[in-house]
Design a protein that fits this description.
This protein is an alpha/beta fold. Helix content is 33%, strand content 24%. The chain has a five-stranded mixed β-sheet with strand order 1-7-6-4-5, with helices on both faces. Helix 4 links the parallel strand 4 and strand 5. Coenzyme A (COA) binds next to helix 2, helix 6, helix 8 and strand 12.
């Protein structure tokens, strides 16, 4: 069967107004702006206000992406949300978003692939678009990580922030920003590397578990670090091999840690201006990080000289999961 080409029609993002700086954190745990900046490149992150939730950010980002695509919500054929911080365990946040945006009765579902959520969502969307199942799919990556971060754990609370980013993929892309290749995978051997223990079917919440903060996020940062550097290099090379006719234009990596991105960049022997970075302002926003960076990269002219070139987006995260997208820009 011939594949129907498709590409990015529109993008959008939404971040909370509330800013949490490194200095703010140093009043909460034993850390400093100097340590966080040197070890992660993060200066501040956004924190969702009380009373607002993941879907609020998703609806804002999704609406912007649909408008940017020049479409009406009724043109969307599927809503895929990558998140590990949905509004509720039941029902799917994507259904709430679909309704709030004014979409038709179309498939809408959440998908937990950690920081790879947007890449996984895009890979799923590609199967429906390539085979003609739908003409337009809204893929959102969003998190309210502040709701599961332990703000007494200095090894993890410095890293994360809240945000949502969205992209509308469609067949009416006119040959631009075409998603040509993608790859997703996982290794459950790393199931415990990043996790929240309590609150699911394995350990339903009890007062004792809540008191012990067992519902909060735990990460083994050192292990993620090595895994992430190697994966980023491997994923970029994979997309280059899948698109041998294209010259590499730029990379939108998961905003995991500036040092991780820098190490991978050096191994790939690429100049700084080829890699989009905004981790200093948002920290690691997990599934939201790539679509937020994508939207900002478009707004700030990052892609200006990349028409017809290869753009790679790559992510890795809890699961462990990983994946990459290769675009002809
Ligand atoms: C978490 C991370 C920043 C830690 O950086 P690191 O260079 O690996 O630091 P280490 O964990 O080896 O800790 C070094 C020292 O700093 C201390 N430290 C840890 N966090 C600190 C903080 N916020 N402030 C000050 N000191 C801190 C440690 O206690 C340790 O002290 P010790 O040497 O006396 O034992 C880094 O490993 C990372 O970014 N990993 C990726 C994690 C991630 O983003 N995962 C999300 C999903 S992809």
């Amino acid at each position: 069967m011939t594949q129907k080409p498709f590409g990015i029609l529109g993008t959008g993002s939404a971040v909370p107004d509330r800013v949490l700086t490194n200095d703010d954190l140093s009043k909460m745990v034993d850390t400093s702006d100097a340590w966080i900046t040197k070890r992660t490149g993060i200066k501040e992150r956004r924190i969702l206000e009380e009373g607002r939730t993941t879907s609020d950010l998703c609806i804002e980002a999704g609406r912007k992406a649909i408008e940017d695509a020049g479409l009406d919500p009724s043109d969307i054929g599927m809503v895929v949300l990558g998140t590990v911080t949905p509004d509720r365990q039941v029902s799917a946040t994507a259904c709430k978003i679909q309704h709030a945006l004014g979409c038709r009765d179309i498939p809408a579902f959440d998908m937990a692939a950690g920081c790879s959520g947007f890449v996984y969502g895009s890979a799923i969307a590609s199967r429906f678009l390539w085979t003609g199942g739908h003409d337009n799919v809204l893929v959102i990556g969003a998190e309210a990580l502040s709701r599961i971060v332990n703000y007494e754990d200095r090894t993890s609370c410095i890293l994360f922030g809240d945000a949502a980013g969205a992209a509308v993929y469609g067949t009416g892309h006119g040959g631009r920003r075409e998603l040509r290749s993608n790859y997703i995978s996982a290794s459950g051997e790393g199931y415990d590397v990043m996790h929240t223990l309590a609150g699911g079917a394995e350990q339903p919440l009890t007062h004792e578990l809540l008191d012990a903060k067992q519902n909060k996020l735990v990460i083994r940062g050192r292990e993620v670090y090595k895994f992430a550097v190697n994966k980023m290099v491997e994923l970029v090379k994979r997309e280059m091999e899948a698109n041998p006719d294209l010259e590499l234009g730029g990379i939108i990596p998961h905003q995991v840690n500036m040092r991780i991105i820098e190490s991978a960049r050096e191994k790939l022997d690429l100049p700084e201006e080829r890699i989009f970075v905004n981790i200093d302002r948002y920290g690691n926003t997990s599934a939201a990080s790539i679509p937020v960076a994508l939207h900002e990269a478009r707004e700030t002219g990052f892609f200006e000289d990349m028409e017809g070139k290869l753009v790679v987006m790559c992510a890795f995260g809890a699961g462990l999961t990983w994946g990459s997208l290769g675009f002809r820009w």
